[in-house]
Amino acid sequence: MARQKLIRFDFNNQSPRIIQPGKPEFETIKGNWNKHFGNDNPLVFELGCGRGEYTTGLAAQYPERNFVGVDLKGNRIWKGATVADEENLPNVAFLRTHIHNIGDFVAENEVSEIWVTFPDPRPKTIDEKRRLTSHRYIHIYKKIMKEGGMFHFKTDDLPLFEYSLEVLAEFNVKDLVYTKNLYQSPMLEEHFGIRTTYEKKFSEKGRDINYLRCIL
User: Fold this and answer.
1) What is the pLDDT of residue 1?
2) What pLDDT is attached to residue 75?
3) Exactly one of 10, 104, 120, 208 is catalytic; which is it?
4) Which residues pair with 210 in a beta bridge?
5) Euclidean distance between CA atoms 19 and 13, whole angstroms
């Protein structure tokens, strides 16, 4: 197991897809994502990407967009970067950092779209500010997103989903559409069969999957 970790650690250090502490680009990437990709295509972020299922899955569907998965766990990012290499996806990168620090790596109006899929629900009231759909985070997203930027949110946790709807209503978002049973909704087609590890786990237990999208 230790040897495997060292191999993955070395891979992450060598991979040009992965931007993490210790690499020069980690300090200069803010406002320069299109330079990293070598084009001016729209920029899409998956926050708390885990193994990057949506980052890589959507990148395969939309080669004309650039996708960045953000997570703190190097082991998870390793998996997403490996898939991107195997599928030869030039429009995929990963950033290793805390989500609450995303403003240190993304300039205002730099992002066209954000996905948040199956985050920790943080059910305790004391942890409300740590929910990725709290007022704190929506303010951050609005700052880095371009005018008309699309926000997507997906979870099996109904209390978190209803909380998120309430928060978004306070921000007067536009074109909000949602479902509390994605697998029985025509909106399922928008996901191209992409499922995260947690989604597979929860859906197999019979839980309904909640999903929304809106313009922030």
Assistant:
1) 58
2) 85
3) 120
4) 155
5) 9
DSSP label at residue 72:
S
pLDDT of residue 198: 80
> Across-strand partners of 71?
96
Residues contacting 25, CB < 8 A, separation 6+: 19, 36
Cα distance between residue 157 and residue 81, in whole Å = 28
Query: Could you tell me the strand order of the sheet in which 210-215 lies?
Result: 18-19, 92-96, 66-71, 43-47, 111-117, 145-155, 210-215, 174-179
Evaluate if pTM is beyond 0.85. yes
Query: Is 71 annotated in the active site?
Result: no
Please, which residues have CB within 8 angstroms of residue 120's CB and are 6 or more apart in sequence? 130
Report the distance separating Cα 27 and Cα 157, nearest Å.
36
Predicted pLDDT of residue 32: 97
Confidence (pLDDT) at 137? 97
pLDDT along the chain (216 residues), means of 10: 77 93 96 96 96 96 98 90 97 96 96 96 94 97 96 96 97 95 93 87 85 96
Q: What ranges in the chain are assigned the alpha helix state H?
A: 2-14, 24-28, 33-37, 53-61, 74-86, 135-144, 158-170, 197-204
The token pair at 207 is: 């839980």
Nearest in space to 182 (alpha carbons), one of 162, 199, 164, 159: 199
3-class DSSP assignment, residue 55: helix
